[in-house]
Amino acid sequence: MSKINIPSENGDLMLTKSTKLVGLKKQLGSRDMEDVNTHVIPDLGGFEVVTLNPGENIDDALDRARAHQDVEVGTHVYFAEGDNRPVVATGIIYCEMADGVGKEERQVIFDAFALEIIEDRKDGTIVCKVTPKSPNPLKVAAALVKLSMVEKAYPDLDVPLDQYFMEPRDGLLPHEWHLENKGFVTDVPNFRLKVGADAKVKAAWRRLGNLGSSSIIIAVIDNGFDLNHPDLRGKAVAPLSVSSNGSALPTGARFGDHATPCSSVAVASANGTGIVGAAPNSRLMPLHGLTYSKYLTERMFSHCIRNRADIISCSWGTIDARYRPGTEHERSIRQALTSGRGGKGCIVVFAAGNEGREYINYYASIPGVIAVGASTSSDTHASYSNRGSGISVVAPSDGGWPILAARASWDQGNSGMPTNKRYYVDGIDRGPYHKHFGGTSSATPLVAGICALIISANPNLTSAEVKSILERTADKIGNTWDYNSSGYSNKYGYGRVNADAAVAEALRMNSGGGTSTTFPTQPTTRPPFTPPSAPTPPSPPQDTTPSPSPAPAPPPTTPADPIVIGTNLFRFSVTGQVRSGFGLQVAVNNEFANVLKQVEGLERKHGMPVLVNISTVNGLTAFKILIGPFNSREEADVAKRKMVSQGAGEPWLRSLNTL
Fewest beta carbons within 10 Å, which of 40, 51, 134, 420? Predict the structure, then answer.
């Protein structure tokens, strides 16, 4: 099997090419292809993952698929060692050049690999994409990092992330006990709940005197929105299909069903039928397309900022260290946290995860994010809910009785259960529109809805203030020894969320009460890994790279110099140069004739020797032109000042032993 080792912010990643799966990016509206044997994943990094003719070599089958008139791009699919999730290269590459490398020099490299620059960022990051003439993006990235002029080159990958849904276990809950728990379920007389083991949402409505503000938008990023569901109909604003960057959301079982119940827990309408979300007056911004891709992650969070989402709910993530959020992932989320809502910051909520581990979802541990664990109908810790430093609060979910949530019309239910228990675990049919739901997937949008109630009470709160209010008003549940002296627990965070107390605090602050003292923030690192620190949000790129001086015109022909005839004949000698000392690089070129003209012009203009370094990049020759050599930096600085005074663009200092 073909293997490739690629650079990654989380260390090198060894990928093995799949012998069965490929990715196809087809033209919009194209029909199913005869060559496709099975449809596996409808959208991964913009590609549909499929199998082709099982009896044919994967390379030959992919080449034939690429030749199909409806296929724009075909790619191989890979697997990381020890993992059964497919990995796709999106075609985007994030690059950072070495200090002193100018735009002309880097362009020679990008031309060699037929890369197109799509963003040139102020922080030095260059976002490129492959073109039809480029090699495989994984091979391009692996080749780039071997060049001395390239500091970093990471291929953008997509891999299915974990949706934190917990299938309900034995039990039933026909009413929404998570909003107000009176200790029982009316149609299940033989099971008792703990009175008060809820999120106090109904009490928060009574305190507000309403169901929250209709001007607040909760963005839900997930797969499988049924926007025609009676509980969600008419609520959607600014929908986005992440990979296509369009507003039409795909529907059907192939595209998932997780988004529908998640959305309903947060915003289901109070319309006299069905269920009611925590913030039923809020609007829904549906973003279809879970993705690990850096580039698509940037797109989704930028969309939320641009379209004025107030809260962003994410019931997904990963605890796989190989797919920890990288610099661009974190920058996207940090930008939402700080620049959304007109500078007050979007409130970003992530699920802690359902793996039952002692550390939480990597996305949930990003500073500023509200990380949500799960509690049960008995006010205990849900055993599946991840524990660890970084959890903000827990919220009621499955673990005793599951909650009730909306069901997509194409949702096939739990096929592993008997027919009468596919949607309702006790077998009692409560109609076609709902099902039992749970996990931190359910706890997360519940907290997102509560955040909507908090900013309904006080729209001036920043994202950091909302997070602080949630934490300091939470109810301590469990044992006293579960909490440290600062009131923090690795199981419960600061406790089980209390919507009524949080709204009361928001109202108090809105009336001029100021900000209360908060508990010390717990460190967000978690064994055995430490997530990277939050980067500075990106800002519009600025071009600060000095441009080399233009090549002077060829010297005129004079009778005194019979050797020079015309402009394309030069006299020169070649002497090897020891790789020590320093040079002042002024340009890079890939045409030898242009190099000769520029060298002659530089010698004549500045009266200093000129060096040429010849290297090969992806089979193409690059000529770096430098003034020098100089024995020390001081000598080079003197020469640099002289060149600038003579009207040259500012050259950059290069150590000759690195060429």
Answer: 420
CB 290 within 8 A of CB 221: yes
- Per-residue HEC secondary structure of 243-271 comes to CCCECCCCCCHHHCCCHHHHHHHHHCCCC
pLDDT of 534 strictly over 60: no
* Cα separation, 567 vs 572, whole angstroms: 14
Q: Which two tokens stand for residue 320?
A: 């796989």
Nearest of 277, 259, 443, 260 to residue 351 by alpha carbon: 443
CA-closest candidate to residue 8, choices 161, 149, 141, 143: 141
Q: Alpha-carbon torsion 543, 548, 549, 550, what sign?
A: negative
Residue 372 has pLDDT above 90, yes or no: yes
Helix pair angle (499-508, 463-472), 10° resolution: 130
Q: Answer with the one of 130, 158, 186 that is the final residue of a domain.
A: 158
Q: Are residues 185 and 38 in the same domain?
A: no
Better pLDDT: 30 or 522: 30
Encode burial over 515-537: b for 16+ CB neighbours within 10 A, e otherwise: eeeeeebbebebeeeebeebbeb
Q: Assign 219 a pLDDT band (cuts: 50, 70, 90).
A: very high
Residues 338 and 377 grouped into a single domain: yes
Q: Which of 415, 429, 373 is nearest to 397 (CA)?
A: 373
CA–CA dist 627, 609 (Å, integer): 6
Q: Give the CATH number of the domain where residue 472 resides.
A: 3.40.50.200
> In what side-by-side order are the strands of the sheet with 311-314?
240-241, 283-288, 217-222, 311-314, 347-351, 370-375, 393-396
Q: Is 120 a catalytic residue?
A: no
Share of the chain above pLDDT 90, in %: 53
Mean pLDDT of 282-293: 97
Q: How far is 300 from 288, CA to CA, in rounded Å?
A: 9
- Which of 258, 329, 381, 606 is flagged as catalytic? 258
What is the structure's pLDDT at 147?
A: 85
Which of 144-153, 378-387, 518-527 reaches the highest mean pLDDT? 378-387
Catalytic residue among 222, 310, 379, 500: 222
| 646-658 confidence digits (pLDDT tens) | 877 677 787 887 7
The parent domain of residue 142 ranges over 3-158
Structure-token match 């091979």, residue found: 139
Q: Residue 355: count other Cβ atoms within 10 Å of its Cβ.
A: 17
Whether the pLDDT of residue 574 is over 90: the answer is no
Please tell me the least confidently modeled range out of 46-55, 342-351, 409-418, 538-547: 538-547
468 catalytic per annotation: no
Helix (H) / strand (E) containing 613: strand 610-617
DSSP structural state of residue 562: T
441 included as an active-site residue: yes
Measured CA distances, 164 to 217, 361, 425, 445 (Å): 22, 10, 19, 11
